[in-house]
Write a structure and sequence with these properties.
Elements (H helix, E strand, L loop, with lengths): L4 H18 L10 E6 L14 E5 L2 E2 L3 H8 L4 E7 L2 E7 L5 E5 L9 H4 L1 E8 L6 H18 L4 E7 L5 E7 L4 H8 L5 E10 L4 E6 L2 E7 L5 E4 L2 E4 L2 E5 L2 E8 L3 E10 L3 E4 L6 E6 L2 E10 L1 H11 L4 E3 L6 E11 L2 E9 L11 E6 L2 H17 L6 E9 L2 H29 L2 H22 L4 H20 L6 H13 L8 H25 L11 H29 L3 H33 L1
Antiparallel strand pairs: 1-2, 1-6, 2-3, 2-4, 4-5, 7-9, 7-25, 8-9, 10-17, 10-22, 11-12, 12-13, 13-14, 15-16, 16-17, 18-20, 19-20, 20-24, 21-22, 22-23
Helix pairs in contact: 1-9, 1-10, 1-14, 4-7, 8-9, 9-12, 9-14, 10-11, 11-14, 12-13, 12-14, 13-14
Length: 599
């Protein structure tokens, strides 16, 4: 048995791949549908969200999307939904406002073109928006989506019958808050610092860097005089190129707000672990990250914070300025931070943004959202959501069925051609088995949530090759590498879309060519000046195979590292397919041919 260890290696990996693809957990049962969108008008808004599973409607079990549509159509009044195993009651007036899709039956993550997904239409609020404005908005949104990790997302400019431009977004599934808080947010960033001025007998001194301006309260106490300016409460003014706002007056203090940083001053948003992270604090989680601001913004900070007195925090023992820095995004306060006394009057270029959430997942998501918006910059126009629809996956389903039929016909054609060439079914049939095995292993590697299965496969592979080595069977360094590397690749996952399927087809074609080279070198009788042993012939075949594989991988690597969308999915699948072939299935096929030839 151990002398066929290369063949057993393929069988173990195929079996592991089948489990990785099909062994799926159903925490809420096999029946039901998955929520892909909850509209703003839905009574379930802020209660249910994308990714939850609905198993029952008014006590009736849902089997698929079609049954869901028939059950909720024209429903009014009180409705009871069983979602993630819990019951929720909603009062429906006109529409339930929940879009769903069928539950995935495998661990494969299919792309929008196969699985279906969500289509969102965004409309500019401003008038006279040009196509160039829309193109700039799409470029910014694509940057946000990539930074946020939303890879399966497509943006299209469209023109309505009213002559106005719109933005169409297609994605495999989006939470409503991602649309509202990431994609449709304009992203105007502003940092303000509060500046108090102490009063004595109604007079004080406004310090701004090296400049000092006298301040006094006018007799009626409704206005103040700052230098040559007369100001009322909530009145804005500009001093030394900095925007200020006089907020109010207390008994012995005046309070001002100064704009120190804007989005244009953000030069870099740090995402590395040294400058960004989430930590437990109290009953919730604190997120933080550092930004690098421009020299001008840092100088504004130094000017505004000069002359502000410091106070001792009796709880921490640290000294802080009698001031705060307030961070706004689209005029909404996202963070307010104390300023260490050592920073007063200093050119400070790396402020830290902080915030808190109840759960670690929410904290990580909010940090990533803010980082994505700040790194991508503000949109030149304001967007609002017009509509959200669910895209049917029928085109992708037709393509999959057509691909299966095409693969079956191609397999039959290969068997026929190889049989005609060698007159032996035992040469052609193993080719189909090996090609089928390659497809299964590639899909198994691409599957998600399969780390335990591939860990077991890695252990079995190690035991198998160790036993073969112990029994002094033939050493094959490439198969040894494949036995370890391929299960480790199984820990990764990627989306199976139409380009990925193209990569699988390319890998299969390469595999068939390589197997024909092996068969031709070993089975075909030729007149040669030097008689070669079977081992030498196989080595000569593998020299050709490895040269071809190295060329393919070298061509795909740049596309995988710098490509996006279609190119990247094709490159990853092709590289994985080539590695599976040269490290696992080709050695197994060579061993099969070796056995056949020896007999």
């Amino acid at each position: 048995m151990l002398k066929y260890w290369r063949i057993w290696l393929v069988i173990i990996m195929v079996f592991g791949s089948v489990l990785a693809i099909g062994l799926k957990a159903y925490p809420y049962g096999r029946n039901g549908v998955e929520i892909v969108y909850v509209s703003d008008q839905s009574p379930a808004k802020s209660v249910l969200e994308q990714g939850m599973f609905i198993s029952k409607v008014n006590g009736l079990t849902i089997k698929n999307k079609e049954q869901w549509g028939s059950l909720v159509r024209n429903l009014t009044g009180e409705i009871k939904l069983t979602v993630n195993g819990k019951e929720y009651i909603f009062h429906v007036n006109k529409t339930l406002g929940i879009e769903v899709m069928d539950i995935e039956r495998t661990n494969l993550e299919f792309g929008l073109d196969i699985r279906g997904g969500t289509r969102i239409i965004l409309k500019p609020k401003e008038e006279n928006v040009t196509k160039e404005d829309i193109s700039q908005v799409i470029a910014t949104l694509q940057t946000r989506a990539n930074l946020y990790g939303l890879k399966e997302m497509n943006f299209f400019p469209i023109k309505g019958i009213d002559g106005k431009y719109y933005i169409q977004i297609e994605a495999a599934g989006l939470k409503s808050d991602v649309i509202d808080n990431l994609l449709s947010r304009q992203g105007n960033f502003l940092a303000r610092v509060s500046k108090p001025v102490e009063l004595s007998n109604g007079k004080g001194e406004f310090v701004l860097g090296e400049s000092k301006y006298p301040v006094s309260v006018i007799e009626n106490a409704t206005s103040i005089k700052l230098g040559n300016l007369t100001l009322k409460e909530n009145q804005s003014f500009v001093l030394e190129g900095i925007n200020f706002k006089y907020v109010n007056k207390t008994q012995n203090k005046l309070l001002f707000l100064a704009d120190v940083y804007t989005g244009k001053d953000i030069e870099l948003v740090y995402t590395d672990p040294q400058h960004s992270g989430v930590r437990r604090e109290g009953k919730g989680y604190l997120f933080y990250f550092t930004v690098l601001v421009s020299e001008k913004g840092a100088e504004n900070f130094a000017k505004v914070t000069s002359g502000i007195p410091s106070k001792l925090d009796i709880y921490t023992g640290e000294k802080y300025l009698d001031s705060k820095i307030y961070l706004y995004l689209d005029n909404q306060l996202v963070s307010d931070l104390r300023i260490a006394s050592s920073l007063g009057g200093r050119v400070y270029k790396t402020p830290q943004i902080q915030g808190g959430r109840q759960t670690e997942e929410d904290a990580v998501e909010e940090k990533l959202r803010l980082q994505s918006i700040m790194r991508s910059g503000a949109l030149p126009i304001t967007l609002e959501k017009v509509s959200v629809d669910v895209i049917s996956p029928r085109l992708g389903n037709r393509f999959l069925s057509s691909s299966l039929y095409a693969g079956l016909l191609a397999g039959i054609a290969v068997i026929v051609v190889v049989f005609i060439r060698y007159r032996k079914l035992k040469i052609s049939i193993p080719m189909i088995f090996i090609s089928f095995s390659e497809v299964v292993i590639i899909l198994g590697i691409a599957a998600a949530h399969d780390s335990l299965i591939w860990g077991i496969v890695l252990i079995l592979n190690f035991i198998l090759i160790s036993a073969a080595w112990w029994k002094k069977h033939e050493t094959d360094i490439y198969a040894w590498v494949g036995a370890i590397l391929i299960p480790l690749l199984g820990l990764m996952s990627w989306t199976i879309d139409l380009p990925a399927i193209g990569g699988i087809i390319a890998a299969i074609g390469t595999g068939i060519d390589d197997q024909i080279i092996i068969a031709d070198e070993t089975v075909e009788k030729r007149k040669e000046k030097v008689l070669l042993t079977l081992k030498q012939k196989i080595k000569r075949a593998f020299f050709i195979i490895f040269g071809s594989a190295a060329t393919t991988i070298a061509a795909m690597f740049p596309l995988m590292s710098i490509g996006v969308g279609l190119v990247r999915g094709f490159a990853i699948t092709t590289i994985v397919g080539v590695l599976v072939g040269i490290l696992v299935t080709r050695p197994a096929y060579a061993r099969i041919i070796e056995i056949i030839t020896e007999k």
